[in-house]
Amino acid sequence: MNAHKAIPVAFRTPQHPSLGTNNWGGASPLLARDISKESLEQRYVRLNSTRTRDEIFPVFEDDLDWAPSENKAKQDVHYGSKTASMIRGLLPKFVMFRRKEKESSKKKRWFLPRLDPHNSSSVTMAVTLRRLLTITPKTPNIFHFLSSSSQPTFSSSPTQNPENLNPPLSEPQIPNYPIASRTRTPLEQQFETWVQILKPGFSPLQVSDALWAQSDPDLAFDIFRWTAQQRGYKHNHLTYLTMIKILIEGKRFSNAETLVDEVMAGACEMSVPLYNSMIRFCCNRKFLFNRAFDVYKKMINSEDCKPNLETYNMLFNSLLRRFNKLNVCYVYLRAVRSLTKQMKASGVIPDAFVLNMIIKAYSKCLELDEAIRVFHEMGLYKCEPNAYTYGYITKGLCEKGRVSQGFGFYKEMKDKGLVPSGSTFMIVICSLAMDRRFDEATEVVFDMLGCSMSPDFLTYKTLLEGLCRDGKGDEALKLAEEFRQKDGLMTTKTYNNLLDLLHFKKS
Which controlled-vocabulary keywords does the entry list (predicted)? Predict the structure, then answer.
């Protein structure tokens, strides 16, 4: 015992044998001592060995009360032997201790006798008993009970074959139930109804009537596509025109754009109403502005479908929507001039609406000579100028600085009994006031008030400040009082602000 007893040494992390030298930056306390190599290897074995269950769960001597009292000395002698240590590790697993009988209980309880470790039959019985006690029953698979068709039917008859009681387990079989057909929606039923109505040999006119009869644009588009796939049938300009109008009214713009591309690719023969419908759709869409002129170019190059007045009307209107800023106006003015020349060359006679748009385009770009020339050409086309015609030219002339000529068009408009717009009134008033023609500007203000229209604060300010700068402060104050009496829309705040602007020169 003493020969195998090792000297206890405080553990320190040793140097790995493969290194050969100490590269840790300092000497290890364990290597500094004079310890034999056998002791170091013994420590390595103790640390790296895997402990058995008996070493993890040790059994104390008090639990091993199986030996007789007279053999106690022999037990102590053989305690350190190999056989005794093996028995000490096995017995705690199998020994069932005897329960003490209660003095108050009269019934005797069953107990197991103490096991003899030297008797192999006793130890085997204990192992078998422990296995039986520790077996846990498996949880039955509930899915085998759910699939009743895959299991045999059990009965209480004693003549039943016992082998069928535990049949081999197999995968549950899903019964094949009949799949019910999906209920058709009303749109599908309506589609099938029209498919049955449109029998083979239908004409494009019948397809057009069927498309107009649909209240749902998607259903109409499905019928349109279905008819195109039928043998011996091809869509013409009538069916394409009908379908494009239905899609635009139903706000199916992506589908309508697809049909426009198909028509441009030559899907059917063309017609003027189909061209105009495509141009109107492209003009109303912001991102299809250039596509409208592509359709127009194809239309003007065709032999049978030339542009008409409606075509130019839509194109001029689309161009004038982009006349928002002065710099942008000059970009589109070239297109206006080109369209005007092509319209005259094709023999299309413009109406007053188209001529007014041309005049407005020239006036916006301050090309007043061109605007006045178109104004004089209106008589050749038997078109009478209206309030919009005079208003565009009057505002353009005043903005150009030609106030006298603009005021002349204003008087001519008044003599014809035409009522100018509010913007025309205010531009003329400001232009006259800045030209120091205060009497004429005051007259235009009263004309505007007589038409139940009220000038804005800037118009009043321009006129009254001009009078004050000209040394007519008293006259400006009187006019402010008259404007307040006749202008029912002037607020007290506006009147007080106008009075604050007035100033008088010292005499």
Answer: Repeat
Q: What is the full DSSP assignment across 332-386?
A: HHHHHHHHHHHHHHTTPPP-HHHHHHHHHHHHHTT-HHHHHHHHHHTTTTT----
What's the pLDDT at 221? Answer: 92
Dist. CA 150–CA 166, nearest whole Å: 13
First vs last C-alpha separation in the chain: 138
Of 422, 418, 429, which is closest to residue 454 (Cα–Cα)? Answer: 422
CATH 1.25.40.10 fits 187-306, yes or no: yes
- Residue 330: the pLDDT is 82
Q: How far apart are CA 319 and CA 331, in angstroms?
A: 10
Model pTM? 0.61
- Can you read off the two tokens belonging to residue 502? 């007035």
Query: How high is the pLDDT of residue 343?
Result: 93
Query: Which amino acid belongs to residue 390?
Result: Y
pLDDT score for 495: 86
For tokens 């609406």, name the residue: 353
Kindly state the DSSP code that residue 496 receives in the 8-state scheme: H
Q: Which of 244, 230, 293, 315 is nearest to 273 (CA)?
A: 244
Tell how far CA 152 is from the center of its chain.
Answer: 56
Longest dimension (CA), the chain: 150
CB within 8 Å of 98: residues ≥ 6 apart: 111, 112, 114
Residue found by looking up tokens 């009254």 in the block: 464
CA distances 249 to 254, 314, 457, 478, Å, are 13, 18, 44, 58
- What is the pLDDT at residue 146? 42
3-state secondary structure 135-171: CCCCCCCHHHHHCHHHCCCCCCCCCCCHHHHCCCCCC
- Round to whole Å and give the CA distance between 295 and 280: 10
The CA distance from 268 to 287, in Å, is: 25
Token pair 């059917």 is found at 268
Q: Where do the domains of the chain lie? A: 187-306
In whole angstroms, what is the distance from residue 371 CA to residue 359 CA?
Answer: 5
**Own/partner pairs, 50-58, CB within 8 angstroms, 24+ separation:** 52/89, 53/89, 54/85, 54/88, 54/89, 57/92
Segments of the chain scoring below 70 in pLDDT: 1-187, 326, 504-507
Given this model, what pLDDT does residue 101 score?
45
Instruction: Give me the pLDDT at residue 90, please.
Output: 47
Q: Which residues contact 257 (CB under 8 A, 6 or more apart)?
A: 285, 288
Task: Return d(Cα 216, Cα 194) in angstroms, integer.
Answer: 13
Assigned token pair, 251: 């706000």
What per-residue string of b and e applies to 342-365 under the rule 16 or more CB within 10 Å gives b?
Answer: ebeeeebebebebbbbbbbbbbbb
